[in-house]
Sequence to fold (298 residues):
Amino acid sequence: LVGRREKLGKILDGYKTSDLISVHHCEDMVHMDETPLKAVRQKKDASIRVAFDLVKSGAADAVVSAGNSGAILAAGVLILGRIKGVDRPAIASIVPTEKGPGVLIDVGANVDCRPTHLFQFGVMAQAFANSCLGIENPRIGLLSIGEEKSKGNEQVRLSHRLFRESSLNFAGNVEGRDLFDGDVDVIVCDGFVGNVALKVIEGVVEAISRNVKHELETSETDPSVALLCQNLINRFKQKLDYEEYGGAPLLGIKGVGIVCHGGSSSKAIKNAIRVAAQYADNRIVDKMSLALGAITEG
Fold:
């Protein structure tokens, strides 16, 4: 744990396993209303910066944080640096599909992107899907407003060409309605579109759940049927619940960083730590470096 030792120590004293957890003291932090890059550069004793310093020194293998996501990105790049061939690291989110887990990238790190950035996102996500999700030769889709290669804005059309002319397993454009069908394993978009998509999904799931619950409570539905419907809704919500996956990996930096939701529960943090260890063990950074090198040389 990285933070104020006195405060963290009081919390740990209430747990029997506290002797298994070490605390690295620091006094400062990056607040949500601060400019991430400026704060990370100026606050050398900020917890997120110190955490990445520990990874760089070899004292830690990964960083898990539910703090300012911009600060996580800034600290990761500033302290660890970018993988060769990566202009901009990106945040990848695991999404459940009808055919298994998939990857949506970018979901918030880069709101303005060039076609080369989207292409790099695809390369990184393909390596991630293969090494961490066990997907053989992952299929890549480019999020657009139509399946035809001529559809989309200039950014998407030029990105489509880069993917099409590469050796990647590119399936073409996919639409928003295709996010969960599983026909592709990786869906690429800029961080603005990806973040909006995630928030829309969260809102729709909550709206469906509330409306179904209201209808069941106010109608004359048989109790056994109502219970079955509620169980089905709960199972559906669980599939889409970010807590099940813990957090989203920051791909493109020379180390493992997991970006967690600001409102993460203890369950979410636990799962984020679990996947961080998994990614470190799978040497995802090395595999992305190889993938990017192969594409560049090709």
